[in-house]
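User: For my dataset I need records formatted as: sequence, then structure tokens, nothing else. Please produce one.
Assistant:
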Amino acid sequence: PNPADIPSSTNYVKAALDESLAGKSVSTPQTKPYGCSVKYKSS
């Protein structure tokens, strides 16, 4: 991802928590992942 995109990004976790705590259904229950995946070393 481009670091310049961060200020215009949406914090979906905060939005989901706020909606849930207000008794509303979560408007965005799922999003597409971005960035790199986590890689684990084989043992």
